[in-house]
Amino acid sequence: MRSAHTCIVLIVAVAAGAAAQAPRKVRPQEKQQVVRLKASPAPEPRAALTYLLLPPVLDQSPGNAAQLYYLANEVAPREKAGKWSEKIEQWMETPPEKLPLKEVAKALGEYSTALRQLELAARREYCHWDLPVRSERMGLVLPELGRYRRLARVLAVKVRLSTAKGDFEQAIHDLQTGFAMSRHVGEGPTLIQPLVGTAISAIMVDRVEELMQAPGAPNLYWALTWLPRPLVDLRGPMQWEAAMVYLMLPPLRRLRDLKTAELTPAQWRAGTDDLVQSLHVLTHRYGKPESSAQTKLALTALAVHAYPRAKQYLRSLGRTDEQIAAMPVQQVVAVYHLETFDRLRDESFKWFHVPYWQARAGLQRAADALDRAKARGEGLPFTAFLPALGRAYFLTAKLDRHVAALRCIEAVRMYAAGHDGKPPARLSDITAVPVPIDPVTGKPFAYKAVGDTVTLEGRAPAPDRPKDDLRYELTLTK
Amino acid sequence: MDRDRLMFLAGRAAGGRRNRAWQCLAVLLAAGLGALLALRPPPREIERVVVRTVERAAPPAVTPAPLELVLLRPDQLRGHADYLKLREEVLTKGLDALPAPRPVAGGPAEPAETIEHLLGERPRMRPRPSFFGLENLIFGDKS
Questions:
Q1: Nearest to B81 among A147, A251, A286 (CB)
Q2: Per residue in A31-40, pLDDT tens?
Q3: How many CB atoms neighbour CB A32 within 10 A?
Q4: Best mutation target, A145, A269, A395, to test chain B (most B CBs within 10 A)
Q5: How far apart are CA A445 and CA A465, in angstroms?
Q6: ipTM value for the complex
Q7: Where are the domains of chain A?
Q8: Do A324 and A43 form a contact (C-beta atoms < 8 A)?
Q9: pLDDT tens profile A264-294
Q10: Strand A34-39 relative to strand A470-476: parallel, antiparallel, unpaired?
Q11: Pick from B67, B83, B106: which is nearest to A138 by CB?
């Protein structure tokens, strides 16, 4: 019986061992990617907001978009594994002018019903997936997110087809659908949803980049400027992610209060039996459990190791030695680990409410502190459920940087339209419209103009990740 | 003899005989009392300590509330664990870690079912739109 009660502490040691032994992955050699664009000068449209990349309010209709997205998924062709996706991938890579227009149009016809549902959904006033997160917690069934990503690629092919035909109105209409879908899919209680939303938006921004290069394409500076920033917002889902451990193990909220509510050792033991079982289910499925005997041995050792620090911690909270001595060892150690977890979790999550370039250093510090704590076996097993979140935030900031860079390019095209096709020598020469800063660094983009070619560069936050650099080379054509 | 004159003189004679001593005494007394009231010192506060013995009700025996364990069902916990695993894979490997959409054995889906299919009826030929009967005038009535 006693050994069963020590499981909560034993599991800590398993997770601690796993965290301490996890090898750091070495990234393969990465190279900076350069995007080369050719585009002609283009003035601001006569009415600045002629083109918008999200459905304008006049085109929206009341109601919830979610059921229409579910319908789109339902009526989309269920292709043989790989067959359609190969074609779609192929057409995503083919230059727009070389697309087999008839074949593409025929293939898109198969998706017309699904695409129509997306078009309607994107023009609904709001999207609420109504996921039963409060009852099912993170065990809820998510919508088929991979499917929406695939539908977004089909929609992207449609945009490419319209761009190739020079039908900019239709291309922009479909881009509105894509951007609205990305924001709708990104709304939800899990981190995965905004990441899928970010991926869909990234697909659409690439299409904007293509459209800008099409002969006679309108200037999309204000269309890009009217997109929300951040384009996909992590703040909503992060509230749920921060509450994750307490969602999974609701009694832990009471455990925190036990600092002031006295429980007898017998009550404590009775109460924690089931909690230990829950942790077993979680760690068994999520982690790599040791054999029962190994686990017990290792965790007992860890409990002995952590107990002095845990006692000291409780003393710092005002507990007397007598009170601490009256508490079960498991409670002392568990409260210590849970409080440590809370502190480490908040150190990460607090940064999601400031812009990425201001949050980056703090997020890195929090990630380092988390690594150190895991290596020391502090806050476990709860910290084992905390991912490194800096990368997720960077992915959304990277998307915003992509949009900001395209705004710069459109500002250059606008400038050139009024200066005999010549680009500005410096970005500061552009005065007609504001030139955005790089949302990743918080500084202006590096800019250089040589003849008719300009380069625009945004640095990656981590120097060992050149793939996260952004570099555009724009050649202005007549 | 004037009666009224006589009464007046009698009255005056009676008034002149009145002793004013008691009047003066009354005035003096009133003035003395007024002065006493005006110059009276403020009343002194007297503190009294009243000791009352109240019987206190015995406090209810404090028994700590049992640890309420509203634990998730095992299937919910397994769902949680699956989510954690998926989240980790997405963060480390990217979105390709998401489960692939369900494929089917056949090709593209059947076209969406019509109402006639759903009701088990044979599809009917749709009548051509009528332009206020003009087509009958032009093409002749075929009904």
A1: A286
A2: 778 999 999 9
A3: 14
A4: A145
A5: 18
A6: 0.76
A7: 2-21+241-391, 52-217
A8: no
A9: 666 666 666 666 666 666 666 555 555 555 5
A10: parallel
A11: B83
